[in-house]
Amino acid sequence: MLEEGTISPSLDAALRPALEELLALFDCDRAWLLHPCDPQAEQWRIPVEVTRPDWSGARVEGAVEPVTEAYRRLFTTALERTGPVCRGEGLELPLPELIRGHYGVRSSMVLAVRPATGAPWLLGIHHCRRADGYDRNARELFSRIGARIAATLERE
């Protein structure tokens, strides 16, 4: 049995191509899945992440991180929405300083992914080279990909 928040090699093999597709479709710099998307959890981890070479990510793939107040707010906001949450300059919500400064993110889109069983996950992309406005079509496409990922998680 796998530890909570980790994924099997077969699930990793199914999810990485979906995240690589996000990099290509959205011309973003990072795509990742975080688990659990639960404001009451004590910790979270990113079991799978893909990045462009110049934006190597948070270097937290697989590492256990504490759920801080900023993450509680992020998880709560994502869970309250039926669609993506967009953050960045000129978007509905600002980026927290940690995300902007430490990780070099200029805009971000996240979505609570809700498989039929188990805790929700958080799907996210980061734009670092430039900010993105995430128009309606981008949000709809991101939601559809999130639904495919939820279906993949359900099969595991």
Total helices: the number is 4
Amino-to-carboxy terminus distance: 12 Å
Beta strands, count:
6
Oligomer: single chain
Structural commentary:
It is a single chain. This protein is of the alpha+beta class and 156 residues long. The protein has 4 helices and 6 strands. A 6-stranded antiparallel β-sheet has the order 3-2-1-6-5-4. Helix 1 runs antiparallel to helix 4. The longest helix is centred in the last third of the chain and has 20 residues. The relative contact order is 0.19. The mean pLDDT is 89.
Structure described in brief:
The chain is of the alpha+beta class. The protein contains four helices and six strands, in the order H-E-E-E-H-E-H-E-E-H. Helix 1 (9-26) packs antiparallel against helix 4.
